[in-house]
Every structure is written in structure tokens, then in C-alpha cells.
Amino acid sequence: MNAFRLFLIVGMLFSWTAVSHAGVAGGVIRFVGSIVESPCTVNIADSKANTQCYRNGQRYQAQQALSGFDTTR
């Protein structure tokens, strides 16, 4: 009798978890807004790439060497 009661309680608990997951099977998420940051600029000169970005109120700048880059083309 105790085994039957335990089996019944466990079965009810598992059925409630299945129902709770089935209740959130759908929905709609809407996003409203705009892109307010400008894109980065890239300038290539003398086999180097200079990158400038403005993010979170700060200006970032980087320079990378382009190995094997021919500027005469």
C-alpha cells in the first residue's frame, strides 16, 4: 500500500512538471529601437590598416601590418 501511494505521488509530481513546460510553448517577442553607433572606419596605406571606432563614448584606434600587401595595384 505504501509503495502504491509513493508511486501515485511521484506520478502526480512528474505530470505537473510536464504541464508547466507545455504552457510556455509559444509567444511573440518584439524589439523596438535603432542603431545609434556609427560603423568603424578602415584606412589602408603603406601596407598598414588603420581602424578607428567610436564606442561607449570613447574613441578606439588600432593599426595592423598587412604582410604581403602590394600597394602598387
Task: Please give the oligomerization state of what you see.
Answer: single chain
As a percent range, the share of helical residues equals 25-40%
Unreliable stretches (pLDDT < 50, length at least 5) are none
Average pLDDT figure: 79
Query: DSSP strand (E) fraction?
Result: 25-35%
By DSSP (H or I, 4+ residues per run), the number of helices equals 1
How does the helix and strand content classify structurally? Answer: alpha+beta
The beta-strand count equals 3
**N- and C-termini, Cα separation:** 89 Å
Shape: elongated
Organism: Serratia marcescens
Protein name: Type 1 fimbrial protein
Keywords: Signal
Q: Could you please describe the fold and organization of this structure?
A:
There is one protein chain. By secondary structure, the chain is of the alpha+beta class. It has a domain at 39-67. It is 29% helix and 29% strand. It has one helix and three strands; from the N terminus they run αβββ. A three-stranded antiparallel sheet has the order 1-2-3, with no helix packed on it. It is elongated. The mean pLDDT is 79. This is Type 1 fimbrial protein. Residues 1-22 form the signal peptide.
